[in-house]
Known about the structure:
Blueprint lengths: L1 H18 L24 H19 L3 H7 E12 L5 E6 L1 H10 L4 E5 L3 E5 L2 E12 L2 E15 L2 E11 L15
Parallel strand pairs: 1-7
Antiparallel strand pairs: 1-2, 3-5, 4-5, 5-6, 6-7
Helix pairs in contact: 2-3, 3-4
Amino acid sequence: xxxxxxxxxxxxxxxxxTCTPPAEEPTPPPTEQSAPTPRHIPSDADRAAxxxxxxxxxDALAERDGETxxxxxxxxxxxxxxxxxxxxxxxxxxxxxxxLVARVEGSEEVLTERMFDPEVRISxxxxxxWTPYDFYVGDTLSHCGADVFVLVREDDTWRVTGLSWTRxxxxxxxxxxxxxxx
Length: 182
């Protein structure tokens, strides 16, 4: 019996010693301009391919092309907009691919959305684009804000699986540096 107790005591000591996590080094405080790690910065080719998908989505809006929108957006895409009304009330709206296609195909005006200064991050087959944008209905500025796209690469093709954006009215946001669309 003493041998069993002694063996158990020894196993407990070994287990406690080997299972105790090492002391963690303190994490330095984040800097205001923390740069992404190099492994999350896309190659030039990946950046171009990812931004091409986003631009193609904007082109499909302007062309009222529902078929292209469906090809670029994953069928289960999550789309949400966040807007703060002039009275301060916050509204969060959710859209489906069918909702978006119906609005785009039913528009009598050209819908022009333009991104600028996009930031692209990547990790394997997952990418994110954060970009300011402005949005015109015909020749009239409708709103502006920031878009966040989440893309997944399947079979060497990037598709949008998530899209969220803010809707703001000038002067609350920046407009495209090239001025109104031509």
